[in-house]
Sequence to fold (218 residues):
Amino acid sequence: MVDVVGDTETVLGAVGASRCVTAGHSGGGPHALACAAELEGVLATLLIAGVAPYDLPELEFTADMGEDNVVEFGRAAEGEAALRPYLEDQRTELVAADAQQMVAAFGSVLPAIDRAAMDDELGAELVAQIHEGLRQGVDGWVDDDLAFTQPWGFSLAGVESPVTLWQGDADLMVPFAHGRWLARTLPNVDANLLAGEGHLSIAVGAAERMVDSLLALR
Fold:
């Protein structure tokens, strides 16, 4: 996760910026936190349904996840040789899927509230993102999954700038317990733990409030 810091520093240098805010949704959460911990000039961080570290004695990583995620992270814990063929099979289906087929493919990790959020606009956006992300293969997907099962390479205690955290208790991709753990652990956090929200619905329904809360922390 900490490898993203150097890349972000390069981008900021290229645009002549010395300060920034960071944001991460789902698996992007640890990357945003890595920048907040290790990169000078981070003013605040928005964390949306961010995943917690993998090997915590007080948190079972896959508890309350949908079955597809349980299987995927189980393969990731076994290593690339077990993970890559599984994701290659998934890619074959996903690169040709439309929104309705995406919902069916990810059925075990989409509660009703997230299915309802998959309207025409969001559905089309997610389909485009997944098609582009998988266009050249699964290398990035493999790297991400393996990274989630490894140490992050930085300490959350180093995240001194403020974090606004958002997590729903109906989330089947990143369970509520992950958000609660991060809310307890981050040193300077405004935690918004919402009843009835899922992984997608929270990002859609609370988007304006998230931006407002982030701007208020700067």
Remarks:
- The chain has a mean pLDDT of 94.
